[in-house]
Write a structure and sequence with these properties.
alpha+beta, two-stranded antiparallel sheet, two-stranded antiparallel ribbon, 4 helices, globular, binds zinc ion
């Protein structure tokens, strides 16, 4: 049986750090998975999305090192709802079950933390689209003039 590594560390993750979690993302989010971001796990907590998702065929045994709650949720094809609101977020005041910070603020703070802790990994896509748009704007196209 293979063994999987736990999700990457983040000071803003709320899911257990010693096991690998499955993610409970809506279908529309699956179109653009972003490794390294914080997202909701199937066990109702927050963990870092790994570079390579776990691929498990139907009927195949789960690898070792998985979060038991996530596996149960997956087997039952349900998503564990986040527990009841226990506090107000210290940043935005929204009710949250994730301790002193809500999921949204944790995601934001995680992204900031990640920017300060990685070099160059987030820069790849930032410049290209703008430059391309500027070039496009300078081009005047004449179409449909041919006799
Ligand atoms: Zn889990
Ligand atoms: Zn908040």
């Amino acid at each position: 049986m293979t063994r999987v590594e736990p999700n990457s560390y983040s000071p803003y993750a709320t899911a257990a750090l010693d096991v690998r979690h499955l993610f409970a993302m809506p279908a529309w989010l699956m179109a653009s998975p972003r490794p390294g971001e914080l997202a909701q796990t199937a066990c109702g907590e927050l963990a870092v999305i790994p570079e390579a998702p776990i691929k498990i065929e139907p009927g195949e045994a789960m690898p070792e090192g998985m979060c038991g709650t996530c596996v149960k949720a997956r087997n039952a094809d349900v998503v564990v709802a986040p527990s009841a609101t226990t506090a107000d977020c210290s940043e935005c005041g929204l009710g949250t079950c994730h301790g002193p910070l809500c999921a949204l603020c944790r995601t934001d703070l995680h992204d900031q933390w990640r920017l300060n802790n990685t070099t160059g990994r987030l820069d790849e896509a930032s410049d290209a689209p703008e430059a391309a748009a500027e070039q496009e704007a300078g081009v005047v196209r004449v179409e449909g003039e041919a006799p």
